[in-house]
Amino acid sequence: MSYSNDMFGSMVFNDQVMHERLPKDIYKSLKQTILKGKDIDIAVANVVANAMKDWAIERGATHYTHWFQPMTGITAEKHDSFISPQPDGSVIMEFSGKELIKGEPDASSFPSGGLRATFEARGYTAWDPTSYAFLKDGTLYIPTAFCSYGGEVLDKKTPLLRSMEALSNQALRVLKLFGATNVDNVNSTVGAEQEYFLIDKKSYDERKDIIFTGRTLFGAKSPKGQELEDHYFGTIKPRVAAFMKELDEELWKLGIPAKTKHNEVAPAQHELAPIFETTNLATDHNQLTMEFMKKVALRHGMVCLLHEKPFAGVNGSGKHNNWSLATNKGVNLLEPGTSPHENAQFILFLCAVIKAVDEYQDLLRISVASAGNDHRLGANEAPPAIVSMFLGTELTEILDAIEKGISYGNKSSEFMKIGVHVLPHIPKDTTDRNRTSPFAFTGNKFEFRMVGSTFSIAGPNIILNTIVAESLSYFADKLENADNFTELLNSLIKETIKKHKRIIFNGNNYSDEWVKEAEKRGLSNLRTTAQALPLFTSQKYVDLFEKHNVFTKAEVESRCEILCESYCKTIHIEALTMLDMTKKDIFPAVCEYIKSLTETALAKKSLCDDGITTEAEIALIKKLSNLSKCLVDKTDLLDKAVLGTYEIDDIIEKMNYYHDTVFTSMQELRAIADELEINASSKYWPFPTYGDLLFNV
Ligand code: ADP
Ligand code: MG
Measured between alpha carbons, how far is residue 312 from residues 47, 221, 222, 503 in Å? Predict the structure, then answer.
């Protein structure tokens, strides 16, 4: 076996290991749990737990942890050792089925959005057997869901699993109508392309803004940015290449199928794309990928920045969420077919996505809303805050022909009739790819490009799965009672295209014309998080989530509250960091520089009779003095703006205030500070510049 073959999955208690290590009947029973969601028997769990422990200990493990994904968006863990003391004073290594299935972390400090009072602090974690346990740093990691004792969901995994189940149920209903009775379940599949920046650790250590907030709050543009377009797909520098190699190896050991790596558009920006997996695994694996990016970067004297907008003036980072539907037989339901029958099924699934995205465009927007992502969406950077879909010219023309009942191209004189005629060959979109679209069909999958680089992909995929489940449920309700299946199918598809085609846009999403056109079409444009998030609790969405058993009303409300709070807290921390840097570092540095200029001017004064002038020094002193007066004024304004936040109780009002007042004051303060940076000597400037940060690796 080759190097990477041996390595791949070597730290994972995967199917192969289970097959080797578990008695046949236990293995079979566990597979039933994994594939069909059957409850696990405690006797089975005991055997599995013991096998896991032996496997882990052989590889040097001493602890286990229930690994979960609270609503902070990152992962959480608490380690327990396998040690169990014996009466004779010795210890043995033990791990029971009970410990595998259920854990009870003291979880009172995780955000619950009011779902769980702190006095009943205990939540519990429950094993998710569909995601393999793995070994990391001497600990056995068991992927788990996290709930309160009242049964309310406190994490991101549980609703994701629920949304996958809803989608599977509804897709199965539709598939049955097309005669597919051999399919047991339908999974959504995801490949999440991850963008990130790498900067030198020494420069990072000198930037409080990046340390506290993940992004630069000050910084004049460097003379060179991304204008030469010389970084995208450029040669990877040795230090970065060494990082990428080690990262790949770490990920492969954990069974994470890291596949593609390259330089991105902005200087110091890179991307990693994995091979797609079931959404649940893709989510766990993306969390681990982000964790290892940070960890491995440090080993190479660098820091990995996952923030959506670490630097003004160059591209920010996103996460392209490639999404499709696959049956357990491995058939991709968004792959255009070759027979009339397959075509009809494909078009119906496609229409389900079109209908879903149009009807729930706001929900998709909400699923990617955060203070960090506001710097990309709706801020003249890819993609805009308006949700629309790209289908490519051919597919759009085909849908148009179906809607109007006319022939497509000149290829046939017959009307297009779904389920009867062979559709024209639908070419895989490779050439006319639209990089500006927030939601693009790319041949056999959709690419949702609005997701921010720091996000857990659980949130956006919960929404995607649920809204498509809803469309499919609508279609199934109608078609299950059809007298003439083909007739009804045709009219349903026509009706869907007619009603929802406004969401399809193949043009340039960055243009001003599109903003106007979208408004004419009645598409929404929620430019900021403050506008988007409060809509999350609308009755329409609560009904949707409750119907598909994804969230209860209380769960939606708690999630919304957490997200709104987090938006305010993020900007609050940024504002305080700016005030700190201005007062403690920038202003004193400018004073020092002015002092040195003044001393120079004074020293030169005695030489004035010899025709030597101090005009340059004085002009610069004047300029810097004026700017520093402005700096002090803007600092006062920001100080007052921050104080104002304490007077507001209503969360929506608060969010708007943070956006309109605090954030605006921050921008004004930054403009002055950056102007000072441009005019100050680098000897006195207290932080590494954009040039240092972006070009030093
Ligand atoms: P590109 O976007 O450069 O054309 P690919 O289309 O090969 O590259 O893949 C982009 C991402 O989409 C990869 O992470 C890939 O695994 C993922 N992907 C490919 N097919 C599917 C699918 N059926 N479902 C979900 N993700 C997919
Ligand atoms: Mg792509």
Answer: 55, 8, 10, 31
CATH node for 194-317: 3.30.590.10
Give the helix/strand (H/E) hosting 692.
Answer: helix 690-695
Identify the nearest ligand to the CA of 272 by its number: 1
Tell me the per-residue pLDDT of 439-453, one tens digit each, with 9 for 90 and over.
999 989 999 999 999
Per cent of the chain over pLDDT 90 is 77
Are the beta carbons of 376 and 309 closer than 8 angstroms? yes
* Segment holding 27, helix H or strand E: helix 24-36
Extents of the domains making up the chain: 12-155, 194-317, 566-694
Of residues 381, 385, 279, the one with CA closest to residue 322: 279
**pLDDT at 118 exceeding the cut of 50:** no
Average of per-residue pLDDT across 179-188: 92
pLDDT in tens, 510-528: 899 999 999 999 999 999 9
* Contact in structure between 416 and 405 (CB atoms under 8 Å): yes
The answer to whether residue 224 scores a pLDDT higher than 80 is yes
**Burial (CB count <10 Å: 0-12, 13-18, 19+), residue 39:** exposed
Considering the domain delimited by 12-155, tell me its CATH architecture: Roll (3.10)
DSSP 231-256: STTPPPPHHHHHHHHHHHHHHHHTT-
Contact residues of ligand 1, CB 6 A cut-off: 189-191, 193, 273-276, 322-324, 332, 442, 444-445
Residue ranges of E strands in 295-405: 302-305, 319-327, 389-390
Local confidence band at 431 (pLDDT 50, 70, 90 cut-offs): very low
Count of CB atoms situated within 10 Å of the CB of 640: 11
pLDDT in tens, 577-628: 999 999 999 999 999 999 999 999 999 988 888 888 999 999 999 999 999 9
pTM of the model: 0.94
Q: Which of 259, 286, 445, 448 to mutate to test the pocket of ligand 1 (most atoms within 8 A of CB)?
A: 445
How far apart, in whole angstroms, are the C-alpha atoms of residue 576 and residue 573?
5
| Ligand 1 atom nearest to 190, measured from its CA | 25
Q: Is the dihedral of CA 212, 218, 221, 223 positive or negative?
A: negative
CATH of 566-694, one of 3.30.930.10, 1.20.120.1560, 1.10.1040.10, 1.10.10.10: 1.20.120.1560
